Amino acid sequence: YQSTSRTGTMLWYRSLVDATTRRIEGTQDGITPAISPDERRLAFLRQRGQEWHLDIVPIDGGEPTTISTGGGGGHQVDWLADGRIRLIENDGKLVRWFDPGGGATTSRPISYCILAATLDDPDALLCGGGGEKTGYLVDVQTSGQTRPLRSADPDRSAIVGSHFRVIDGGYLVYLSFGGDLLAAPVDLATGVVGKSVRLITGVARRNYTGAGTYALSATGTLVYAQGENEALGYLVTADNAGLDTLDVGREPFLRWNLSPDGRQLAAVVEALDGDELRIYDLETGRNVVFARHPEIRQPVWSPTGDQLLFSSYDTTFIGRPGQASPPERVLEQPGGFEGYTWLPDGRVLGTLWQDYRAVVLHADRRPVVLDSLRDDVTFIRAAPDGRWIAYSDRAITKIWLEPLPRDGRIFSVAAAATGEPQWISSSELAASVIESPDARVDIFAIDPSAATPVGRVTRSYRLPGFNDTAGQSFTITPDGRVLYVRGADDKAARYLRVIPNWTTQMKRAVDEANR
């Protein structure tokens, strides 16, 4: 397991048989450990910003051997039963298989998959976490094909949660948004999930991925730690003058957007059974629920502030907050559209996540029309004057700038540990920089009349307690401040709880509830 101290991270070994505990030498700055099938070696990542090193060390410690390096942000390491090491990187969009003996390495792009669970079928992954906190299966061979898990109820609702695991092919274990460990029967062939049972409460939960601090051994032992739900936080505004907290409470905020006049906030909040899109009155702090869905993407206000666009899975909606009529379904698009900028002429710039394609949605037409802009980009946004677009690359490691309409010119804005871009004005572009444990926003000068329009960084804002949420992780207020979620301080668990034969108890409880 990974321990944290003032000098960084370190991996430790603890026997579940005789409680032997020792530090594993050679694993300084190590994360995401995976034990080999013969229990003699350990694979793990060392990560600096977006660069990772995949290392192997004897389980008793020693000199590590690096078997690969790369970029794009390594997320998960698993040592498979067939002896290969599997790494899922690029924010869950690329899988690699390594031969620890130095043989061939293979890789394949996949549909977005965070917290992948290994299944008996080597061509399938069970996913659920990050920006898609529902259970679904990914076919590794077809790259883009996914199949959701559904409840056995008549409404066939999505299975909301994260960190899914399958026990003995027929039992599903996963974490609720509230930090409860749940279990239910599952038929992986049909994707049908039975009635769930709450078995453990208060499991510590990470903010972006939704990972829980729990693990299950091959012999059925459960190891877990109780702790904070790190998704909870306050929305704060920041600049070099300091921080101010919005009067909207402490919630698991996922995505948010201020109205053009700054008087209302549209915020997607994790609820126990899915996502809620709430409209907050910032003068009173009160809110109303505008929409409920298993998953809701970024809300976008119209320039006049009287309409709101958002998407859920393949469906895009436009509605009018404050009116009794429900939001109108305006688009059904496989893979899902997520909008970011609504221009005065009715164009909404956004991304089709299935193929990472930037598009323009014409919200003023019925039926709405989609026009393609360019491929392999994310988080595309237009400048307030509509003359420039800024976007991140597919791996979310670089930010680029282009004129609009496009004329073939492309300018680099930032690289390395960057997030998404946000326009402060038509002459200033903000880019987030996340270098654990710190985060900041750099403000770049943009001069449209210059041959190279991207200028120097004019100022930077520190973001203490920054929560790296799923989707865009910060926005800009009408007065130019940074709006983000400030979470609790990261606290390491002081002890682990161990329950031998837990899977036997789990099966008994699940079977009883589903008679």
Describe the overall structure:
- Strands 16, 17, 18, 19, 20 and 21 form a six-stranded mixed β-sheet that branches. A four-stranded antiparallel β-sheet has the order 4-5-6-7, with no helix packed on it.
- It is mostly beta strands and 515 residues long.
- The protein has two domains: 2-229 and 498-513, 6 Propeller (Neuraminidase); 233-487, 6 Propeller (Neuraminidase).
- The chain is globular and about 65 Å long.
- The chain starts with a strand and ends with a helix.
- The protein is 2% helix and 50% strand.
- It is built from one helix and 48 strands.
In the CATH hierarchy, the architecture of the largest domain is 6 Propeller
Main β-sheet: number of strands, strand sense, barrel status? 6 strands, mixed
Overall average pLDDT: 92
Number of separate structural domains: 2
- Assess the beta-strand content as a share of residues: over 45%
Assign the structural class, choosing from mainly alpha, mainly beta, alpha/beta, alpha+beta, or little secondary structure: mainly beta
Query: What is the CA-based Rg, rounded?
Result: 23 Å
Unreliable spans are none
Q: How many helix segments?
A: 1
Q: What is the number of strand segments?
A: 48
What is the CATH topology classification name of the largest domain? Neuraminidase
What is the level 1 CATH name of the largest domain?
Mainly Beta
Give the distance, in angstroms, between the N- and C-terminal Cα atoms: 38 Å
